[in-house]
Amino acid sequence: MYKLYNVKTWGSLAIHCLLEEMEAPYTNIWMTPEQVRAPAFRAVSPLGMVPALGLADGRTLYESAAIVAFLVAAHPEKRMSPPIGSPDYGEFLSLLVFMSAEIYGAGNFAMDAAGLVQSETEQRRLKTMLLQRVDSYWAILEKRLASSGPWIMGSDFSALDLYAFMLSVWGAPTEEALHAKYPPVAELANAVRARPKLKAALEAHGVLKPGGYVASDLV
Ligand SMILES: N[C@@H](CCC(=O)N[C@@H](CS)C(=O)NCC(=O)O)C(=O)O
Q: How far is CA 169 from the centre of its chain?
């Protein structure tokens, strides 16, 4: 039985959806931002971040890309990735790490501009540059979806689509603006929202419809 450390609309959203799609047994531990930031949580997740996934043997995994790569490999029969070790799986990993390290990473830095540079002018400039970078990364995903969609791995739905969906929910300046700019991303998000197994989780996160995520800092 897994243990998912989960905060509404945060980085645990994709893992929550993946566990639901796989019908994997797990205990859902809803946390508040304050609980995540409390020093005690660092014993679970060293950077004090979600997602974190407790394993049956007492260990805990952190870093969203690692958790996705682990879950799809631990449950290959659920076919949430190409066959492990295949060239397609290599491409799946490239896209997973691209989304987690680059899109998620740059978005996080944009939100934390005040923690990175001092003056407000520099903060605004850094945030603008990082959000432009994130936008250029969406253009890469859009191109892929437009040429070989509807899913990121082509005709096969996979964990990558849940991950991309989560990132799109955080779209800047809004999810709706991201959809308007990149229609294939909107189609992917709509298709993820239509998956019956995800209804309860998406409702619980408040993202069954676009616009459920509010980050005043991202504008
Ligand atoms: N690289 C990490 C990033 C995780 C991350 O940034 N999580 C955010 C929520 S989306 C968090 O827990 N932040 C802690 C905080 O805001 O105090 C991953 O991919 O799992």
A: 9
- pLDDT tens for 69-110 read 999 999 999 999 999 999 999 999 999 999 999 999 999 999
Residues whose CB falls within 8 Å of the CB of residue 62, separated by 6 or more in sequence, listed in order: 44, 45, 46, 47, 49, 51, 52, 53
Tell me if the domain spanning 87-195 has CATH number 1.20.1050.10. Answer: yes
In degrees and rounded to multiples of 5, residue 21 shows phi and psi of -60, -35
Q: Which atom of ligand 1 is nearest to the CA of 65?
A: 19
Distance between Cα 62 and ligand 1 center (Å): 10
CATH 3.40.30.10 is the classification of domain 2-78: yes
The answer to whether the CB of 108 is under 6 A from ligand 1 is yes
Q: How is the chain split into domains, by residue range? A: 2-78, 87-195
| Burial label, 182 (beta-carbon count in 10 A; 0-12, 13-18, 19+) | buried
Confidence of residue 215 (pLDDT cuts 50, 70, 90): confident
Q: Is the pLDDT of residue 219 over 60?
A: no
